[in-house]
Amino acid sequence: MKKEKLDAFTDAVVAIIITLMVLEIKLPKVNAENLLDVLRHIGIYALSFIVIGITWLNYNLFFKYVEKLTPKIIWINFAFLFLLSLVPLPTQALGEDFYTPASHMFYGAILGSVALTYTLLQYSANSHMEHLSSAEIKTMNLKNWFATFMYAASIPLSMVSIYLSTAIFILLPVMYFLPERKLAGKA
């Protein structure tokens, strides 16, 4: 399979995921009393949209350096897309029931699974990447493992405080907001 074909397939799936997520937004009736609830729903959707967008951006950034596809890379990519397609579910749960630890645990579990498969995808592609130094690859891998660990940590932390898990959910996309400067400059 050509790399461009898998890349186009991934782009299409991500577009569908975002479309499904926006279709699943169920806002309460807007009035003065529940304006904060409405804004919370929109904020959670925006957070998930940003997570998916940053994931897609970083995927495309690293994938342009992959010179050869293997069956392992293709199958991990499918697993990554499957788990990414689940993001609308905890987004909806968190929007509807923000103040319960279970919704935060669900969100953290799905985002942690996405981060883990993304990390494994990039790790499996490391030996098939060109034009990147081993230090650049190591930096990407460390950042991905850190995100995976933090999303996993958000699950038990949700039981302590939903605000701790919320902080993790917000801070990790900030860490990824801009791709590695060195890599982006090579584009």
Would you give an account of this structure?
The chain is built from eight helices and no strands. The chain is an all-alpha fold. Helix 1 (3-23) packs antiparallel against helix 2 (35-63) and helix 2 packs antiparallel against helix 4 (88-96). It is globular, with a radius of gyration of 17 Å. The two termini are 23 Å apart. The mean pLDDT is 90.
Which CATH first-tier class would you pick?
A: Mainly Alpha
* Low-confidence regions: none
Fraction of helical residues: over 70%
Largest sheet: none
**CATH architect. name:** Up-down Bundle
CATH fold name: I/LWEQ domain
What is the rounded Rg? 17 Å
Broad shape: globular
The ordered string of helix (H) and strand (E) elements is HHHHHHHH
How many distinct domains?
1
Total of DSSP H or I helical runs spanning 4+ residues? 8
Q: Return the structural class.
A: mainly alpha
Mean pLDDT: 90
Into which percentage range does the β-strand content fall?
under 5%
Distance between the termini: 23 Å
Number of β-strand runs: 0
List the helices and strands and how they pair.
Blueprint: H1 3-23, H2 35-63, H3 71-85, H4 88-96, H5 101-125, H6 134-160, H7 162-176, H8 181-185
Summarize the entry for a quick read.
This protein has 187 residues and is mostly helical. The chain has eight helices and no strands.
What descriptive keywords fit this protein?
I/LWEQ domain, mainly alpha, 187 residues, globular
